[in-house]
Amino acid sequence: MKYALVTGGSRGIGRAVCIKLAQMGYQVIINYASNTEEAEKTLEMIKSAGQNGETLQFDISNGKQTREAIDTWMQAHPDDYIEILVNNAGIRHDNILALMPEEDWDSVLSITLKGFYNVTQPILQPMIRHKYGRIINMASVSGLKGLPGQCNYSAAKGGIIAASKALAQEVARKNITVNAVAPGFIKTDMVKGLDEDSLKKTIPANRFGTPEEVAELVGFLASPAAGYITGEVISINGGLYT
Ligand code: NAP
To answer: Is it the case that residue 242 has pLDDT exceeding 90?
Structure first.
């Protein structure tokens, strides 16, 4: 059995990534925060694709909860390890900094950056022992360009890009690659409420992307074929920003 863990696999980009990795032959562990119904739907879709998986609820920003969930999984699978980790879960709480409450700064940074540490740290050791692994971190155009109204989100996604580059150099000799993916506007719950008609005029491709398009890129980075690509941040944004 080959295992992959996708954080935030219950909806949006994470769900599409779960399905892609299942199609590639992985048993997928679908992490989510609270939406059990949607996580179960992802699992059903994986089963329809002829694969199996499991849901695993934990709040990635909570170190104790995350450690307990991963330890429990590892104890139940003593002969297996997670060879693909997709750090996908994320939230946004947009506001100009002048009006941003401290809790909106903290929650966005905590889920993205503390979440990256909480999940990646325990999963890295078995990858190092097995001398093979793929880590893909979901960044954003916001982390490359910086977007007004998103100081917290830009800081979090910029941080995840820097962490990806640093970790890539720590583990490259162990045949583990670490890359970041930086989507532009992708049609998910996260962009509900945005004015798609006016925003798409700012995108050279004149449309939002789909979760499946992002999942194809993640699938390639997760594949053995991408073994010499590491420490990169790859944009997928319809030409919005390069
Ligand atoms: P989404 O549809 O809002 O889904 C968010 C996912 O993250 C859900 O599965 C949610 O679980 C999970 N999640 C949130 N907080 C969590 C926590 N504390 N612990 C565990 N899971 C948590 O978002 P999306 O648009 O697919 O975005 C996925 C990633 O892509 C994010 O990192 C986002 O920043 C990034 N991104 C998105 C876009 C875009 O345009 N959509 C653009 C650039 C980057 P529940 O279902 O249980 O709530």
So the answer is: no
Q: Report the alpha-carbon distance of residue 119 to residue 5 in Å, rounded.
A: 10
Overall number of domains in the chain: 1
Residue 82 main-chain phi, psi, to 5 deg: -85, 115
10 lines ligand 1 (CB under 6 A): yes
Cα of 90 from ligand 1 centre, angstroms: 4
Residue 241 lies in a domain: no
Tell me the CATH number at 83: 3.40.50.720
Contacts of 140 (CB under 8 A, 6+ apart): 90, 153, 154, 157, 182, 183
Residue 203 DSSP code: S
What pLDDT digit, counting tens, does each position of 164-203 carry?
999 999 999 999 999 999 999 999 999 999 999 999 999 9
* 189 Cα nearest atom in ligand 1: 2
Which of 169, 65, 160 is CA-nearest to residue 108? 160
Range of the domain at 147: 3-236
Query: Is 242 within the bounds of a domain?
Result: no
For residue 27, is it within any domain? yes
